[in-house]
Amino acid sequence: MEAKRIVLIMGGGIAAYKCLDLIRRLRERGIGVRVVMTRAAQEFVTPLSVSALSNERVFTDLFDLDDEREIGHIRLSRQCELIVVAPATADLIAKAANGLANDLASAVLLASDKRILMAPAMNPRMWLNPATQRNVRQLSADGVTFVGPAIGEMAEAGEAGQGRLVEVPDLVAAIEELLSRPVVGADAAGPLAGRHIVVTSGPTHEPIDPVRYIANRSSGKQGHAIAAAAVAAGAQVTLISGPVNVPAPAGATVMPVETAEQMLKAVREALPADVGIFCAAVADWRVAQPSSEKIKKSDDVQRPRLELVENPDILKTIAQLDTGRPELVIGFAAETESVVAYGSKKHQSKGADWIVANDVSGEGVSGGVMGGERNRVHLISGDGVESWPEMSKREVADALIARVAEFLGERKITKQPKGGKAK
Ligand code: PMT
What we know:
Rossmann fold; 14 helices; five-stranded parallel beta sheet; 22% strand
């Protein structure tokens, strides 16, 4: 008998074919897969091939008398440890965010009391559409976990951007991580059980016109590793991420954003939190008035001039909140020279309790810090400066989260009031 069971809801999209490999990989790991296919999914993959691979009957119709008599959509939604939606189309996401239940897939989602993992796949414009982003934020707030979408070429010729279904190994890893973690949040075990941690990660993209933007080389690896370490420590984690190509850590609620202004809005929405960790490389400036049309390059048009305006400082804004300030506010400092000196300056000027300063000059750490796998950081706090040795980003994350747990543990013992500034 297979130990774990998931319900896989397949949405209609060209990426649906990847689900065949997904089912095979999951069954190799002893995970039973019961599949619900939307009508659109059946246009891309046949229920027969899905049934052959899953070794189960495939469910397609809300009003199928035989299906309802045999198992029923309510039992279908409950007799599993996890519901996975892949590819999660804009339509399925919208239905779930608004509580619609007019087909079997959406009815199963609405009736479920299980965890839900969604792997979106759609055209990049559809993904970035404010309606989709609003729906994703709503579902994240409702506790749905998102993995992806990844950045890359789309099936349609000439289309590229964020919208691809994550690769099957990443999806399998996210499923396994969620299945291995029976409870997250208030009832979870771990030093940060019952704590809410907000983490920002990745770059921001500030539009110049519909196809161009200002960005930086942040990959999201450090911020995502921090979110994963916090989940592993039992915290409820909200990860607010700019566009990145690394998979979202399973168990974290991800709020994808693009610009600094969206990131600040998402952070405000995610509060209250016990801890805020601001690892994102936020663009300091944005274009005052992005063009609504692609700026043309032609001989008789003057070279375009970009007027820049300052972006809101997210870390400073949150660190200086009078009410609703997280108990512990941690910023990062990305410096290319005098790392500790400039980091200490930011410790003062931003109002953060701790600053994690790292050298992004590309020297010293193998592979460089921005975009690379490793980091060497200096932890700057009211107690002074601690320089840590070079480590993998996950090791830095684990060490930082251990310090956070230690700090919150001490605060609990000394029963200090919430909301004040940490030492
Ligand atoms: O993503 P990786 O490739 O893994 O790389 C990790 C990293 C190098 C991006 C990360 O370790 C790091 O240093 N993050 C902070 C990058 C940065 O923007 O540093 P800064 O010195 O410019 O900003 C200082 C702090 O203010 C940061 O916490 C930043 O999130 C915050 N900030 C900055 C500008 C702004 N408008 N709003 C902010 O909140």
